[in-house]
Please model this.
Amino acid sequence: HPPSLAGRYQSGEYGRYILSVGRLDPLKRNRLLLEALAHCDKNVRAKIAGRGAEMEPLQKLAKKLGIEDQVDFLGFVPDDDLIQLYAGAFAVFFAPVDEDYGSITLEAFLSQRPVVTCSDSGGVLEFVKDGESGFVCSIQPESLAQAIQSLYDDREKCRSFGQAGFEKVKDISW
Model:
């Protein structure tokens, strides 16, 4: 099924941040995103939209890793703002543990954004093709950092991957 905001997603300029959306829970592995960001160029930023029990531990980890200035913890984001966040990201991080479907992937692709995920992320892997519409990485911060940096450094790759993802999901309907 399509995401609830299907038909409203849009593509804008590829910005300076990778976006993570969803409940802040250990199974969503935002911790890996922060650990990866610590291995990236200091110009790479992350925006994390969502609420949950992991908020404070993630904020503490960002401080410990020395990347607190590179991460924005946004909390709850209204739909209109979320659409704009997707439209301005250079990529979307979505690497949950064995997710069953992964609507975040569809939202990213409908916004023409590549997705960075992990090899054990479940349903996400039905959509993301490594090196075509995003990157499927090992569960190592260094592997994720390489993928994130690669996309940050190459906006044409972001555009190409995002378009490939869009083509895959543009006709999904009930």
In short: The mean pLDDT is 96. The chain has six helices and six strands.
